[in-house]
Amino acid sequence: MDYKIIVLDLDGTLTNRDKVITPRTKEALMKAQDRGKIVVLASGRPTPGVMPLAEELNLKEYGGYILSFNGGMIVSCKTGEIVFSRQLPAEINSRVIDLALEHRVDIITYEGGRIVASDAAYQYIALESRVCHMEVTEIRDLEEMKRYVTFPVPKFILTDDGDYLVTIEPKVKAALGKHYSVYRSDPYYLEVLPKGIDKANSLERFLERTGYKREEMIACGDGYNDLSMIRFAGLGVAMENGVLPVRQAADYITLSNNEDGVAHVVEKFMLSF
To answer: 3-state class of 69 per DSSP?
Structure first.
C-alpha cells in the first residue's frame, strides 16, 4: 500500500521519555516529507503546545497539519487556517467545575495561549505547563473560577492520581450524560470534550477536506485517546509501550518510543518502496 499520511501522537509516541524527537526519527520523517508524505501531529495538547514540534519538523514548509485538543481543532501549518474547530458550550463550564469541587480534584482549561488552572504548582498541572510551553493563570478558588471562565473552551481536564481518577470517571460520565465525551488521555488526566470529538472523528473531517483516503493513512499512538484513530486508519500502529487496549486494536506493534518506534514504521511502510 502506498501510504501518503502518517498521523502521530506526541507524548509516548513521537517523543521519547525526555519529550524530544530523536535524530533517527526526525531524519525518517524528513525523508518521508521530501517524498511528498504528509505528517499530522495529533495530540491532546493545545495548539501552542504542539507548535514547537511542528516547527522542528518543518510542517509549514511541507504542508503538514496539527490536530490538537484531542481532535477539537485542526490547523494547517502551511496557511495557519483553522480547518475545523469545536468547543464546549459556555453553559457547561460551571457544571464541570462543580464536579471538580465535588470530587476534590484539580482542574485545567485554556484561554487563548494560556492555561487556566486551580493550582499552578500541582505536579500534573505543572507538567501540562512545561510540556505545552504555556503559562498558567492560577485561580485556586473554584467558585471564583466559575465566575472567570464564562467563555467557550476546547476542553476541561480533571487531574489527580490515576488510582483515584479511575474511581470518579464513571461518576463524571454519569453526571454529564451522553452529550459530552469523557475519557482519560493519561492515567492522571480525565478529559471533558464536546460529544463526538476524538482523534478519529477529526481525522475523518480532515480526509473530507483534503481528499485523501483512510486506506492511505498510518496512525501511531500509545494511549487511550489514540484508540479511535488506530482503529480508523488504514494501518493502525501501537507503540510497544502502549496501553493494552491500544496494542490489542492495532494492525502492527512497533518498537517503543525510546527505541525509535516511529522511525521504524516510517522506514518500513513509507520509505522502503
So the answer is: helix
R_g of the chain computed on alpha carbons: 18
Instruction: Extract the C-alpha cell encoding 147.
Output: 465566575
Bridge partners for 235 per DSSP: 218
Average pLDDT for 11-36: 96
Domain coordinates of the chain in residue numbers? 5-86+197-269, 90-194
5-86+197-269 placed in CATH 3.40.50.1000? yes
Q: Are 14 and 266 in contact (CB under 8 A)?
A: no
**Position 238 pLDDT exceeds 90:** yes
> Does residue 131 register a pLDDT over 90?
no
pLDDT of residue 90: 95
Give buried/exposed letters for 38-56 (b at 16+ CB in 10 A, else e). Answer: bbbbbbbbbbbbbbebbee
**Domain 90-194, what architecture?**
2-Layer Sandwich (3.30)
pTM score? 0.86
Beta bridge partners of 68: 73
Stronger pLDDT, 8 or 45, i.e. the higher one: 8
* Mean pLDDT, residues 61-65: 97
Which cell goes with 220?
A: 501511531
75: enclosing H helix or E strand: strand 73-76
At residue 254, the 3 state secondary structure works out as: coil
